[in-house]
Amino acid sequence: MTYRSRLLGAAGVLALAALGANPAHAAGTTAGSTITNTVSVAFQVGGIAQTGTSASDTLTVDRRIQLTVAEVGTTTTTVTPGATNQVTAFTVVNTSNAALDLALSVAQQTGNAGAHSNTDTFDVTNVRIYRDNPTTGTVGSYDAGDALVTYLDEVAADASSTVFVVADVPLAQANNAVAAVTLTATGREAGGAGSQGAALVQTSGANSAGMDTVFADSAGATDTARDAAFSAKDDYTVSAATLSAIKSSRIISDPINLTVNPKMIPGATIQYCIAISNASGSATATSITVTDPIPANLTYDSSFGVKTNGTATIASGVATCAADTTGTGTMASNTVSGTLASVAGGETKTVVFQATIN
Questions:
Q1: CA angle 153, 87, 180 (to 5 degrees)
Q2: What are the strands of the beta sheet with 229-238, ordered from one edge?
């Protein structure tokens, strides 16, 4: 390697080090800053240096309005029917070259695709917006230290905030129902802490000597380019149990025919099979209580009791309970009760009891 090559290589390393020490920011030079550039002119007359001259130019950096909103994470928020304070999270960044207030609003869809290739089918309720408080609770997680807001106050250039959209889920929602929400941030004038600034106005016409305002934002999920706003979607997807019940009866015996072709006559013993099924792909149902009042013309068979947690076969809407029961129920106030700890998606469990026709 020649000396010249070594010298150029060393210079390149120094240049890269300098670039690494001064990373670029999205905001750029602060709006309202002045940039002064002075040129100097030296000359001679008759070989004698003369008094030189100079000239300066000063310009004012205009204000570029630009911001982004992005969903935190890449998946839907899974919720259950009736759940409250369910959270979707967004990051809001002021990429302008000036401080701004950022107005916040939430819109709900009516149909069409949500954020995750699914279709909106319902609206959440009690929708609110909170700003994450990084000095209390857990950073990036919704908790009691976060502030209820309608705008972000005095957001510096390049500063970001985590914003939570918090809502309640109506009780009567089917499995895989989707509620899509869109968070929009809109730039507003800054300059007064504690109150939302006025709407921004883009400078029209030729460049002025003062600080002009230029809208430079891209189009978001629902807003257009160069509107001083940006929007992003997220959604809630319901994970619900889809329970169904079938109650069937079969004759066990009667006092005349006994167990050979018994008939439904007084004194006959009837076995009732109650099958509780949860549709495939549904959330697991828990703490399931089955109650069945005994009609006046039946007498509960206490010798058989109440048996739970068995399996059944279902054909043409008729359930036939198997004998593999592992739990017991109760009989009180002429009402049979059985509890199933859980029924998973695609699973069926049973409650079985017997009675005699009066």
A1: 100
A2: 77-79, 229-238, 178-188, 100-108, 151-155
Question: In this predicted model, what pLDDT tens digit does every residue of 27-48 receive, in sequence order?
Answer: 689 999 999 999 999 999 999 9
Q: Which domains does the chain have, with CATH numbers?
A: 64-238 (2.60.40.10), 243-357 (2.60.40.2430)
What's the whole-model pTM score?
A: 0.81
* Residues 230 and 217: beta-carbon distance below 8 Å: yes
Q: Which of 215, 196, 204 is nearest to 31 (CA)?
A: 215
In terms of C-beta density within 10 A (0-12 exposed, 13-18 middle, 19 or more buried), how is residue 315 classed? exposed
Does an H or E element contain 18, and which?
A: helix 3-21
Nearest to 252 by CA among 265, 273, 268, 267: 268
Q: Give the pairing of strands 63-65 and 213-215.
A: parallel
Beta bridge partners of 274: 247, 351
- How far, in Å, are 254, 273, 306, 307, 314 from residue 319 at the CA level? 22, 7, 17, 15, 4
DSSP state for residue 348 in the 8-state scheme: E
Q: pLDDT tens for residues 61-71?
A: 999 999 999 99
DSSP 137: S
